[in-house]
């Protein structure tokens, strides 16, 4: 390795990368020219560690554009957009996985000087969970607990429950505190820090749905009703590796997430100090009024609330059981968010009537054995979100549809018979309704007639009963066509999901008279053919077909006519041969096939020029078949069923090694056939969901900088410890 500018051979000085860059445009150009000239005839390996500012556009001209020898430049960063900015045409992003449970345990016990059979070992299990497999967190936490001597069970529990507080005061946790504080300080503004503190409402080990979180933010008035802005802030938290994706949809959007363990400890401590959130297990109640109240399952049943606290609560979330004093809803005067979907207490009629008197309520999510929703819900004129998916409600009062501010409605039920008020309802829905999301409803004749007048709908998910007669099918077909045809702009974010046990060709046999835009379409049932309107849709980027039978060659051939597809998912029992030819599906990025058996998948040379991800989940897969991996120049990852033969695994891995980009090959465990069929029949699985457990790789990121250099593999410790760099 060469040396430059008097630096020691084999290395360079550490510190802030900005410190080595002269101020002013002329000084930068001189430094770039000097460094480039020094490196032209040398082999070098340069690591820029922990980058948090976008300096690559300034720095990249300092490295030779073409070299006759092998050199590498590596940047480590916990921030996704910086990794993207630093990439070259042949660069790669690598996410370092956290340590396994077994390795985490061994490292923790070693640093804590504990034997595997020690009684204290059991006591440390809670601390292990909070470390999330992060080496720095494991080491510092173990050293902290070890420094306390031999604590009793009670003392050990108390120490583990207050790690956030100890982060502030204990020298043994100083390194951990430095990393966590730097991650928090790197967030761009005060607002996003506030939204991060809001995550302290949710218990550890409870994945949080992105849409649930965003709708709650909006109901709190944090974004002025701007859902796009709320989504942007959520993505920033993911981008900074502070929120960890748990489940990712087929179009790479985060569906559920968690906060890293030690970051959550920091959030909880900061929230308590600022009286932002009151938790049920707080040992010392804060001074001041309780505004955001969250009752966690470990002690929610013992948390008694005084009547003086309740009038000022703006948000109430209950996980598990709660003390009866919490359910005195008549005392809440400012409540805007009431989230009871994971509450295990049974609410009586008295509780529901009191909830209907919470006139400021904007978000209401119910769970448990509730079977009837009172008509008094009509009083909630400001309600924006109603989620009754986890209840036993089968008939929804018509008063819900008449709520003037209602935007999102979720449930698995039928609408109350509205035949006597159908004309009045149609007028209201056409002129005053703000309903945008309608998810999980069972369609009948009355519903179909009303749906045709819901002009603001952008997301529809409905179930079609197999007992529907010809008249009902005609009404529903007309409503579906009307919904599709209202998508007249390219930027309309519209989606349609239909679940039907019995396929009726008449339901979707309509044609479109004009150009219509639909971004996402999901069809689940016994699919016999591809509906003709699908191939005429503009802007259809995501299509999911989930059939109880098989996909024939005719269906697969018709798919090649859908020009704008970026994400395609096919779920069936069997699939005929699928050939993708050059010029077909030109902008497809991701393809997921989940079948029990298939004839073959063939991708011709020159086809799929943008293709990045292939998920081929079939246990009977026999090698590569008609796939030539070298034809897929942009391929990044391949996921196969873990049940394929060892010979097939080896063949795919060897093909990946020969590929210029060396795509990842993952082997995933899928659900059993009976489990998948049961979930599809009962509606427990959405059509777009894959019956597989795929581990998302959205931790801290690193991108190889390849200005004419060879590639290498580098892994980076995920936030909140972005320090460890390892070559592989």
UniProtKB/TrEMBL annotation:
The UniProt annotation puts the region (Disordered) at: 1-25
Q: Which residues form the Disease resistance R13L4/SHOC-2-like LRR domain?
A: 313-664
Q: Indicate whether Transmembrane helix appears among the record's keywords.
A: no
| UniProt KW keywords | Plant defense, Repeat
Entries under InterPro entries matching the protein: Apaf_helical, Disease_R_plants, LRR_dom_sf, LRR_R13L4/SHOC2-like, NB-ARC, P-loop_NTPase, WH-like_DNA-bd_sf, WHD_DRP
Which GO BP terms sit in this record?
Answer: defense response; response to other organism
User: Which named protein is this?
Assistant: NB-ARC domain-containing protein
Q: Which organism is it from?
A: Triticum aestivum (Wheat)
